[in-house]
Batch of 2 targets.
Target 1
Amino acid sequence: MISIDSTVMKTETLDLANLPASETALEIHNLNLHYGTKQALFDVSMKIPKKRVTAFIGPSGCGKSTLLRCINRMNDLVDNCNITGEIRLHEQNIYDKAVDVAALRRSVGMVFQRPNPFPKSIYENVVYGLRLQGINNRRELDEACERSLRGAAIWDEVKDRLHDNAFGLSGGQQQRLVIARAIAIEPEVLLLDEPTSALDPISTLTIEELITELKAKYTVVIVTHNMQQAARVSDQTAFMYMGELVEYADTNTIFTTPSQRKTEDYITGRYG
Ligand SMILES: Nc1ncnc2c1ncn2[C@@H]1O[C@H](COP(=O)(O)OP(=O)(O)OP(=O)(O)O)[C@@H](O)[C@H]1O
């Protein structure tokens, strides 16, 4: 079994199946997804609690990233991708025809595996989304820039070189800059798709500490290959296998007393 540091056991256990609406950020209902004829998600249902960290774990190809990408409709960009079921954010199905996808993606930000700053200054990277919204007031942008860089735990490292190109930062700094860019527009949900897999161990630790801080303000959903990382940063964990959600519970439960044999086999390293 994965050993869990007692310091991460910080939030009380939730009854995830009966989570009240006031504590639910997202509700996924009977979600099925096909890429062409290949089914990648099978009838996934779960409630993701507000202002906590939820991890999706499972072996390669089990559908973790696919499920994550459904939450801000990134799969809309994939040809032949067919989705049925619902994902409810504020009681509204994000797949309803009436939903403004650009607005959805402002509420549900995403950070990818490889840091992807734009070829611009640090400052312009952070305020990019605000400028897209038509905000050009210097004071407003300056304040948002500082607030976001502080929120992403990188302000002290970059405050004297805000107008330098973002490509001059290390990989770990670039990833925190990308997180600053994502939180500058004040989303509710942050989706992190293996955010540390391209980083060294020290940068990984810094990002993990940051993730723990982010949940004070945001609902965080993270896909990770790394079970120790899921154990360290998440409050609840969803174990997926071959497109199915096998088990979803508090992280402590998943890693110490899973109810499903498949979960136990995975976390004890029998496959994956
Ligand atoms: N754009 C796509 N077109 C067709 N099939 C896809 C596409 N994206 C993913 N798949 C397939 O869907 C299944 C789930 O993939 P997904 O990337 O969601 O898994 P994953 O659990 O995130 O894997 P990994 O841990 O390796 O990133 C896999 O069989 C994959 O090959």
Target 2
Amino acid sequence: MLPVGASSPYALAPAKPGRPAIWRFLPYLRPFAWQFSVSFAMAPLAVAISVSIPLLLGAVVDGPIARGDLPGVLWFALAILGLGTLDAGIAFIRRWIMTRATSHIEADIRLDLFDQLQRLPMSFHKAWESGQLLSRMMSDAGLLRRFMSFGLIMLLTNSLQIVVVIATMVVTLWQVGLAVLAAIVPVVIATLALMGRFGAISRRVQDQTGDVASAAEESLHGVRVLRSFGRSGYAQDRFEAGARELADSGIKRMNLASVLWTLLEVFPNVLLLIVLLGVGIGVSDGALTLGDAVTFVTLLLSLAWPVGSLGFLLSFAREAATASDRIVEVFDADVSIAPGPTTLPEPRGRLELRNVSYQFPDADAPVLADINLVIEPGETVALVGGTGSGKSTLVSLIPRLLDVTSGSVLLDGVDIRDLDLEQLRSLIGTAFEDPILFSMSARENLTLGRPDASDADIAEAIRVARADFVHDLPWGLDTRLGEQGMSLSGGQRQRLALARAILVAPRLLVLDDTLSALDIHTEAEVEEALRSTLGGVTGLVVAHRASTVLLADRVAMLVEGRIAHVGRHQDLLATVPEYRELLSADYSIAMGEEDAS
Ligand SMILES: Nc1ncnc2c1ncn2[C@@H]1O[C@H](COP(=O)(O)OP(=O)(O)OP(=O)(O)O)[C@@H](O)[C@H]1O
């Protein structure tokens, strides 16, 4: 495992005990240092303007108004108008600068998160629901951006304004200032207590958002199954349960937030009571002028927004902290499959599995144990075995979708964990039983593993995989396939996936039951064409049918995660009853084909 942060390719700062996760995003702000500096530098200016307006009001009451000097009043009014306009201008510039900077930061975080998801091993993707990952990448990253964009700066500006106004009050009339300070203490304590509870519920809401996204994603993905079983209602009920749970948690969070917001919105009125009493006494004692009283009261009124909005801003900060925790969990996930330093100058494609075992992280026992198998360059081995015997797990070890838990896989004598991952994967063409296609053109799908493939290479791969139907699509190779290639039949998708694997011109071809959806005749045609392709590469072919086994030079039979038998198809048929039994359904066909060949 790579030590977290130390060799991370991302800007994210390393974790430090006791430091909230949100701080780890600080390096993402670095490229926008001047934008943040300008925005933060504007905060004291905005506060100075807010505080100077009450001071000017006090001065106009004691000065021009007391003297009946109308032009003087007008000058003061113009000055106050100017300051107000300046304040609005500052807010506009700040918003303008920050929106751009934080949108880039959000995109950077999202890109790194996407990259991390590509790096994380299949065991991670099997364990995590896609909706949870999606909600972290979309809504949590968006929330973080909004907080950085205006929440953070408002929190800073408003807190600064509260401190400056109260300090001004203490300096102007310390008795009233101290009374205000004393009144603040219980409110701060109540706020902290509410924030603690808000944090827990905020995490629940954000996690449930991911659960609801997962449920929606799963139901949409499986809409055909649900409809055909007449279980759309059941899916609706399950989704509704999740959505209602989320709504309930959202209401609880809102209730808590409302208590906090109301407390902080009412509080300035309590302070107004204290201040009015204080200045009333001050004016009657002659300690304060009428202008001082106006200054004092307006100063306090200027606190209404900063204090009132504090509830919203603190809960916003808490939600952003939770979003950071959730995003960081993905960044900190164990990227155990790291690239090695070695590149093979002239790969030949000799594959060796040496004492290989694999155990899923949460499983009690290994699914593969002590596998030893050598496949020479140009040789094809068929992997057969009952359902759940570990065939797919074994082939996943070759392109390092999973890493062995003991033993080693060697390519040309080098442990594949020491090989450059990009080179390793570029040497392997893989096609799975479930052929995933992407919502892009047929050509883009085909050239996924080799974007620079020539038209002739594409045509040859299509010929071998018998995927000629692409030419009959409305725009031929440029036809955009629907989501996951849903507009194609299962067999068509499998043939496209096979053509995609062949097009890589791999040293190693790994086919995981790739031809299962083809009819017997198409399968025979594909196999006939594949034979010549397999002649030049090292092949590992998972086979359920005897006809597919015939593609191979040798067969390895897996029984409960162990290689029980290895040999030629004919020899195994003759000597291993369980092998015969396994392929019995296809036996007659196999024999027929063999006779013909
Ligand atoms: N993420 C996982 N965690 C724990 N066990 C798993 C996980 N994925 C698969 N398994 C188990 O590993 C075993 C081997 O699965 P695998 O998919 O490799 O079998 P297979 O031989 O390819 O089966 P089939 O022919 O049905 O496709 C199965 O018992 C399966 O339940």
